[in-house]
Amino acid sequence: MALLRVEGLSKRFGPTLALDGLDLEVRPGEFLALLGGSGSGKSTLLRLVAGFEAPDSGRILLQGRDLAGLPPPARPLGMMFQNYALFPHLSVFDNVAYGLRREARPRAEIARRVAEALAMVGLEALAARRPHQLSGGQRQRVALVRALVKRPPLLLLDEPLGALDAGLRERTGFELRALQRATGAGFILVTHDQAEALALADRVAVLDRGRVAQCGPPAELYERPASRFVARFLGAANVLEGRVAADGAVEAAGGRLALDHGLAPGGALALALRPERIRLLAGPPPAVNAVAGTLRELAYRGDGWIALVALADGTELRVALPAAAAPPPPGSAVTLGWDAAALVPLAG
Ligand SMILES: Nc1ncnc2c1ncn2[C@@H]1O[C@H](COP(=O)(O)OP(=O)(O)OP(=O)(O)O)[C@@H](O)[C@H]1O
């Protein structure tokens, strides 16, 4: 059985349709990332699951039970939202113990469970401190174990790493995933950071205008995006608009493109092509999967280069080159090529 099942969920705020018949499933023990641009409905979905808002239509089932009408505290969920304020006047221990005390658990059990929870994130030595005596990353970890100490089957996290700097963000991300595996809880993590979603999640759901545009394991979304939207949103893929010629090759971007499998001729077709799958070619171009263009812009990124190449038909390709590629200066004529397997047909 699914841990969480969301069926046909819709929510309107005045003229804005924040969720538009959204369907989603989270499996037991799964780390699911909700990825989407600003206003795509990520936070609204989390707020509806948490019970802070009621849907206009649709159902939310947790472990098979319809949550309709249940107030937030009655929902068996842990939550860590953007403004995860800790109680400033309470110690780390008391912050984490808060939820267990409200359940009137025996003192000895509370002491044991809080100690275990703090040990999971390496904060047992800081139990007596107040929040203002902690670093940002430490506060964030206290908020996390506070949400987990009641062992909820599902934890909702809204941009939990958003306030941390890049280095701490990556480290805390790894900790988050280790904690998820150790507890076996299902996690839903809202983020607008695609690298974070791809790195941490078992599956990623890409949201677009209140619907799930695609949901699947990170590599599947990245390698086989279903639509132009997902291809561009994840990893800034190039999208080539073309037409299938009589011999099954694709005419696009002013060149002839061959896929690694046959296509029925005649139709219009969009193909995704990742920037890092494109190479600079020297010498005469091959007959297929190569195009000539002019290098317009070049940016050094430390681990490599990003080049913008304008083709004769006006298409602009984004090309990621390795640091050792030694690209020619802007204004140069270049030939680009790629393997047939790099071309991914898009359905929408
Ligand atoms: N309480 C509200 N009143 C009016 N409009 C709202 C309300 N909450 C959300 N919206 C609107 O619903 C849409 C979805 O908002 P939501 O906060 O779910 O997006 P999001 O994907 O979380 O965006 P962000 O990444 O910017 O946080 C937006 O257009 C937003 O302006």
Please summarize what this structure is:
The protein is α+β, with helices and mostly antiparallel strands and 348 residues long. It has helices at residues 42-50, 92-102, 107-120, 136-148, 166-183, 194-200, 218-223, 228-233; strands at 4-13, 16-26, 31-36, 57-62, 65-66, 77-80, 154-158, 186-191, 203-208, 211-216, 238-244, 250-252, 255-257, 268-273, 279-281, 290-300, 304-311, 316-322, 333-337, 344-346.
Overview of the structural elements:
The protein has 348 residues and is α+β, with helices and mostly antiparallel strands. Helix content is 24%, strand content 34%. The chain contains 8 helices and 20 strands. Strands 6-7-8-3-9-10 form a 6-stranded mixed beta sheet, sandwiched between helices. Strands 13-12-11-14-20 form a 5-stranded antiparallel beta sheet. Strands 15-19-16-17-18 form a 5-stranded antiparallel beta sheet, with no helix packed on it. A hairpin with a 2-residue loop joins strand 12 (250-252) and strand 13 (255-257). The longest helix has 18 residues, at 166-183. It binds adenosine-5'-triphosphate.
Distance between the ends: 31 Å
Count of DSSP-assigned helices = 8
CATH superfamily of the largest domain: P-loop containing nucleotide triphosphate hydrolases
Beta-strand portion reads 25-35%
Q: Segments where pLDDT lies below 50 for 5+ residues? A: none
Which small-molecule ligands are present, each listed once? adenosine-5'-triphosphate
Strand line-up in the sheet with most strands: 6-7-8-3-9-10
Q: What is the H/E string?
A: EEEHEEEHHHEHEHEEHHEEEEEEEEEE
- Domain count, please report it: 2
Residue-averaged pLDDT? 91
> Would you tell me the structural class of the helices and strands?
alpha+beta
Per CATH, what is the topology of the largest domain?
Answer: Rossmann fold
Helix content: 10-25%
Could you tell me the radius of gyration in angstroms?
25 Å
Second rung of CATH, namely the architecture of the largest domain: 3-Layer(aba) Sandwich
Q: Describe the sheet with the most strands.
A: 6 strands, mixed
